[in-house]
Amino acid sequence: MLTPLLMLTLSCPALLGVAHADEGMWLPEQLPEQAQRLDELGLEIPVEQLADPLGEPLGAIVSLGFCSASFVSPQGLILTNHHCVEGYLQMNSSADADRSRDGYLAGSQAEELPAGPSARLTVVEAMTDVTDQILARVGKRTSDRQRQARIEAAKKALVATCEEPAGRRCRVAGYYGGASYRLIQARELRDLRIVYAPPQSIGSYGAEIDNWMWPRHSGDFAMLRAYVGPDGDAADYAKNNVPYRPPHYLSLDPSGAQDGELAMVAGFPGHTNRYAMASALRFSRDTAYPWSIDRADEVLAMLADESAKDPEAAARLAAPIGWIGNGRKYRQGMLDNFEASDVVERVEAREQAFRDWVAADKKRQRSVAPVLDELDALATDRRATWKTDDLFYRLVRYTDLLRVATTALRLADEGQKPDADREPGFQERDRDRIAARFASLERSLWLPLDRRTLTRTLTLIEDLPADQGITPVDEFLADHGGVDGAVAALFADTSLADTDTRLGLLEQDPATLRASANPWLQFAASLESWQAPRRARDKARAGASLRLMPRYMEALIQARSRPVYPDANGSLRVTFGQVQGYSPRDGVWNLPHTTVAGVVAKASDAPFDAPPRLLKAAADAPDSRWADPELHDVPVDFLTTLDTTGGNSGSATLNAKGQLIGLIFDGNYEAMSADWLFDPALTRSIHVDIRYLLWMLEDVEHADWLVEELGQAPR
Amino acid sequence: MLTPLLMLTLSCPALLGVAHADEGMWLPEQLPEQAQRLDELGLEIPVEQLADPLGEPLGAIVSLGFCSASFVSPQGLILTNHHCVEGYLQMNSSADADRSRDGYLAGSQAEELPAGPSARLTVVEAMTDVTDQILARVGKRTSDRQRQARIEAAKKALVATCEEPAGRRCRVAGYYGGASYRLIQARELRDLRIVYAPPQSIGSYGAEIDNWMWPRHSGDFAMLRAYVGPDGDAADYAKNNVPYRPPHYLSLDPSGAQDGELAMVAGFPGHTNRYAMASALRFSRDTAYPWSIDRADEVLAMLADESAKDPEAAARLAAPIGWIGNGRKYRQGMLDNFEASDVVERVEAREQAFRDWVAADKKRQRSVAPVLDELDALATDRRATWKTDDLFYRLVRYTDLLRVATTALRLADEGQKPDADREPGFQERDRDRIAARFASLERSLWLPLDRRTLTRTLTLIEDLPADQGITPVDEFLADHGGVDGAVAALFADTSLADTDTRLGLLEQDPATLRASANPWLQFAASLESWQAPRRARDKARAGASLRLMPRYMEALIQARSRPVYPDANGSLRVTFGQVQGYSPRDGVWNLPHTTVAGVVAKASDAPFDAPPRLLKAAADAPDSRWADPELHDVPVDFLTTLDTTGGNSGSATLNAKGQLIGLIFDGNYEAMSADWLFDPALTRSIHVDIRYLLWMLEDVEHADWLVEELGQAPR
Q: Is B183's pLDDT higher than 60?
């Protein structure tokens, strides 16, 4: 169903200005359409080989759920970003060994550290177009609510069948707003181990100061290894598990890529809004982002304060400080970009050109204009309840004990239904994952923080206009004489802070949970009774979107003269382009490479506290076998024109031969709004050069066994 | 005498590492030695033509005393920097018209504004080697004091003869520490008028924030015109004066220079220390610069405070705020450079290589080692009295009324001697200049500031160790019960704030001045009796330097394999190199051009308050006839590898044909220490592109008559 749409190359000019040589998060199967450009850029392997998601090299690309990764040895060795393994390091930290801060290097396979019970790696085994099956029971007269329900039911049925064999993890991904679907069947491995992670002073050198910035000098790499049971099947961590033998692994090319050469990234980008209407940008710019930034500032202040009080808090809260800080900088960066690059105005102009194109043809006007009107109305609907919905989400998300209670209750409620009818995320297949999260909470829970975030969120809910309030919260506050009383009542019982107690919740039925005297469960139950009809409302909205978006996308594609890629959705994509710098402002060119000399030049206090062993080795870096002959030094990070986003972190950066030359780990500040609008002049991806890892392993860490496992000759 | 030394190209390798292709402030006559490099870079005129200081183009290069400038039309039109005419604009400012801030544009020649009584322009008419005459009476056994006196007497005699015809200004300049001398005969013009100066918001766009920085967007240009009497002779300002017809003027090339192309600067660089000993750098780094920075901070705080209190003060004090701030940033920048680029360590290594070279040969050791020892001892001597000398200078320099009293007294004292015996600076030839400075003080004097700087300086002198004190200050403070009493006693009489009273001092003999009841004159007289023997001491030191430095330079030159240029001394020099960016830090390249789009991108509040008329015109800049085809915009500023320093401001930047393509106005922050050590990788000169001026005149200011006078076709 997809191909005809994609192949449409009508005679109308490219009205929308979206597509550019290096823009595009392409489905592997779309790459042959890009053969000419890939050839111009110097691709040295057949494009058909590159387009095979199960072949070489794409078959070596795997997912950690929140990050991408890749196999790099026949022994299941995995490369990803340092920032993707921070949670695993935290799981392995204690008062004696702060592995979050200091990193870890296994001296041999025997010393590799378990990444923890919630770590998962998925290896794609098949991708099948299931559009027809998903939409089989959806017709023109299907109501929005039914549409959502039937599509969800069809997805769940396909997933259930797919997951029948043990060790499988399946997912149906929708593309082009629901115009097409693919069943992605993956093998799920549960025993991941930490092989090497540099200290923070290398892995996130420069931390928040350098985050999103260029010039960059982060060694944002880490090495894991996947293990399976002795029988070769996926298994929980066990001492006698054996290294997994992946179907494919990437070879490394330590000659790197020079300025202007082809580079590609294969990975699992999470989410983009490349076809959003201008009103969505305006809402984000004027309302949602400023609000989120204010909320992040409040939480960050609390996190900093708690961390300053207690080193134990500092260790537990390092991760949220990182991701909330990152999210805050991301939103502020988008606001800055919006202003500096006229992003909203350009999207408005693009949309106006599209609307003019629609209006220019009576048939188009009849078919497309009502879709646009309905999409506008849908967006208006969502925005009307936006603040309440956001605060409800924050209430549950940022208070760990309430999240536990809510999750347990919903899992129990859904457990009453046949598995196929349960909400996605609360099916049998999700039970282990939830249990793992409940367990790992013992490493990150910090009640004083929970108490402060809850207080703040309740206060904000209390301040909502009367007609937008959250009734059970209002009642709860009234019952306890206001926010402070309510918080005190909840924290009078912190039994859910105990891991066994938490895990015990997963065994209880809804009635038992609802009858519990635990105030968190009682509060969660009252919230749930209020939220249930809102979920139904959201499903109807989702159904409307599933009806409208495919028609909107179809029209957009018709208005274009070039292939169109779908928005990112966490499924495997390939983006390609060149190693290339950019001009951040008039009179300045950001060069495409940084070097070890730059690490040394930045070295001072934290977060630029490069370790002495690195600084010592740096003096000889120009003579290292990993030095670049043109740069006369070991390269550290590099820039490309590739089109990437969150979820791509840890993705393999490939050269023209499909060999690994680096790992992507960030985008640049000047193009943070690229999720909305890709600006070819400004949008760059930031990668760590594989030679920096090799030099680090060999000349700084003296881990020659890993250099050799990466396929490099012994020195 | 010079040539044999310069031509020495011994077989020893270039030990000192000073010379580089683009380093060198060459005497015009040295350019033929550089013919090969000039040819490589693409010089399109005969090098002999370039080497003729009285020919074309060098004959068009003139001096404003503190800045360089050049003739650009047969009607005496002059180009220089905006920051070089700030004093003239201040002379023409009043409560009604703040020309310092708003600039000035004459609608026709009749509207050109007199630059003020102290403005002077010198046009070189002859340069003669007078080494033999200067050193005729100096022998091996001449004492240091005698040496200084005989050289000074010989210089004065040559100058006196040279200046016999009216309208002449002559000077004897010493090179290579006194190894050779040139008599520079110049015509001095006294009627300069302001033709065009942009507002500060263009001329010093970015002000202190952007000062020394790249990317830069300053329109640091201004236009003057020289006038002479109807008979063609130099004359004071008079309405019926006529434009001067210069012997040469530069033609403009609005095609500019592209990245990598030859650029040259001809002008009058003031002072460098390229052959200084490492101990001088260490002293500056560890003692003199930190002290100067502290003093500047104190004065700047006073200036800001006074300016904030009164708009009249703000207008009068804008100039010192500028130059003191600039000097402070310069010293801090040098300290930063010293650290970032290991400047002191590199000079130490270079000096050690030189000392090793001396030690390697017995004859050299016998002749050169004692010179080095004596120079070390001389420097130690000077540093022993440095702080006292510095505070004495500050006392007189930063208190206007005391400067007036001291100057008047010294002029009167010297006036008792035959003119040829008087101190340089206090001869008959200097009288007009002193009178002009006394007169123009009425535009800048601000007594509340004078009072505060005097209070601070007296306090610092009071705090000097007993054996380093300034006796007459100590006595004066004792007589008046301390600093406050002393300041009050002086400021009880502010009659010298009156211009006529000041000018009246110049008519009085020493006895009358010493008998005056004016406390400033009394204080000045007591200071002078203390200072006189110290001046004699300084002359003996100068004599020692004149004995030692030529021998030191001779040895340095022998140790080098390439031509050596003398340190800057305010005489005409030519430097050449290329348009070229540089890397301020790992991963970044500063591009060699900025554009009007960058002016717009920076526009916000002061000092980035680009005028609306500029911002309006900027939209069409890419289509202007002055736009660069490669940049697709009008260029604003550009970078070159040229070797320049203070005094070069306003110098013409020439292309391969010797045509004017811009004006140099600054150096870059990363190489502020270039006066000590030229670092080819980091040292850049910053120029304003002539196309920015042409665009400004035509598209922003609509001054087509000036565009045409600059030799451009009417649009």
A: yes
In single-letter form, the type of residue at position A404 comes to V
Are A588 and B215 within 8 A, CB to CB? yes
Within 10 A of B390 (CB to CB), how many other CB atoms are there? 15
Residue tagged 């790197």 (tokens): A256
User: What is d(CA B92, CA A384) in angstroms, rounded to the nearest whole number?
Assistant: 62
Contacts of B595 in chain A (CB under 8 A): 586-587
Contact B68, B261 (CB under 8 A): no
Nearest CA to B354 among B341, B365, B339, B342? B365
Q: Which of A82, A83, A593, A687 is catalytic?
A: A83
Which residues touch A114 (CB under 8 Å, ≥6 apart)? A91, A92, A191, A192, A193, A194, A237
Binding-site residues on chain B for chain A (CB distance < 8 A) = 214-217, 581, 583, 585-591, 593-595, 597-598, 601, 637
Q: What is the rounded end-to-end Cα distance, in angstroms, of chain A?
A: 54
User: Is B687 in the active site?
Assistant: no
**CA dist., res. B38 & res. B26, Å (int):** 13
pLDDT bin (cut points 50, 70, 90) of residue A476 is very high
At residue B324, the pLDDT reads 93
Q: Which of B341, B586, B602, B666 to mutate: most A Cβ within 10 Å? A: B586
For testing contact with chain B, the best of A216, A259, A586 (most B CBs within 10 A): A586
The Cα–Cα gap between B325 and B331 comes to 10
Confidence of residue B715 (pLDDT cuts 50, 70, 90): confident
Q: Which residues fall within 8 angstroms of residue B699, CB to CB, at 6 or more apart?
A: B617, B620, B621, B624, B626
Per-residue model confidence as pLDDT tens digits over A73-104: 999 999 999 999 998 998 898 878 999 899 99
> What DSSP character marks residue A447?
H
For residues A226-247, give the mean pLDDT: 97
A93 is known as an active-site residue? no
Residue B9's pLDDT is what? 30
Q: Cα(B543)–Cα(B545) distance, rounded to whole angstroms?
A: 5
Choose among B215, B586, B589: nearest Cβ to A598.
B586
CB atoms within 10 A of CB A579: 25
The tens digit of pLDDT for each residue in B552-601 reads: 999 999 998 788 999 999 999 999 999 999 999 999 999 999 999 999 99
Q: Yes or no: say if B464 and B388 are a contact pair by the CB < 8 Å rule.
A: yes
Q: List CB contacts of B258: < 8 A, sequence separation 6 or more.
A: B579, B630
The pair phi, psi for residue B189, each rounded to 5°, is -105, 140
A204 tagged catalytic = no
Neighbours of A4 (CB within 10 A): 8
- Nearest chain A residue to B603 by CA: give it: A340
**N- to C-terminal Cα distance for chain B?**
54
> What is the distance between the alpha carbons of residues A156 and A466, in angstroms, rounded to a whole number?
39
Please report the pLDDT score of residue B322 as a whole number: 85
Is residue A624 within 8 Å of A699, Cβ to Cβ? yes
Q: How does DSSP classify residue B633?
A: B
Instruction: For residue B581, give how far its alpha carbon lies from the nearest alpha carbon of chain A (Å).
Output: 9
Cβ–Cβ of A589/B594 closer than 8 Å?
no
Question: CA-CA distance, A329 to A334, in Å (whole number)?
Answer: 8
Looking at the predicted structure, is the pLDDT value of residue B19 above 50? no
Domain A18-120+190-270+567-715: give its CATH code: 2.40.10.120
Looking at residue B659, what DSSP letter applies? -
CA gap A274, A347 in Å, rounded: 10
Q: From the list B215, B583, B589, which residue is nearest A585 (CB)?
A: B215
Q: Would you state the pLDDT for residue B20?
A: 44
pLDDT of A175 reads 97
Which token pair is A535?
């979920």
A62 against A15, higher pLDDT: A62
Residues B188-194, mean pLDDT to the nearest whole number: 97
